[in-house]
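PROTEIN DESIGN WORKSHEET
SECTION A - STRUCTURE
LENGTH: 114
TOKENS:
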């Protein structure tokens, strides 16, 4: 049996942009990605703490140090600049691996800096 386990999380990031004209995904500052071990193209679950919306999408790497958290495409209807979001990535592992695994969690400041 394999389990899906939280691998990494950006907790309470501030949404900086919502771009309806882009074809989908979430753009995340490369520094935040690196700190959590997230990679470009990885599937993430994104929760909007401001309105309760939840989406599943994939990551696009944003400019390092920019603080960008941008919801693109249809997700722009569910997230607006200033909203607070939690971004979570998961990994599949055995129960034995999961017992000793610790997810990487980053809590950025209001400018999305670590």
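SECTION B - SEQUENCE
RESIDUE ASSIGNMENT:
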């Amino acid at each position: 049996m394999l389990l899906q386990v939280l691998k990494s999380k950006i907790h309470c990031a501030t949404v900086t942009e919502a771009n309806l004209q882009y074809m989908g995904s979430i753009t995340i500052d490369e520094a935040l990605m690196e700190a959590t071990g997230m990679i470009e193209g990885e599937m993430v679950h994104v929760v909007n703490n401001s309105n309760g919306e939840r989406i599943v999408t994939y990551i696009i790497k944003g400019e390092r140090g920019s603080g960008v958290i941008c919801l693109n495409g249809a997700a722009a209807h569910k997230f607006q600049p200033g909203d607070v979001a939690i971004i979570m990535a998961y990994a599949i592992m055995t129960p034995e691996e999961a017992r000793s695994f610790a997810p990487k969690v980053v809590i950025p400041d209001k400018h999305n800096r670590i």
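SECTION C - NOTES
The first strand starts at residue 3 and ends at 14.
The chain has a mean pLDDT of 97.
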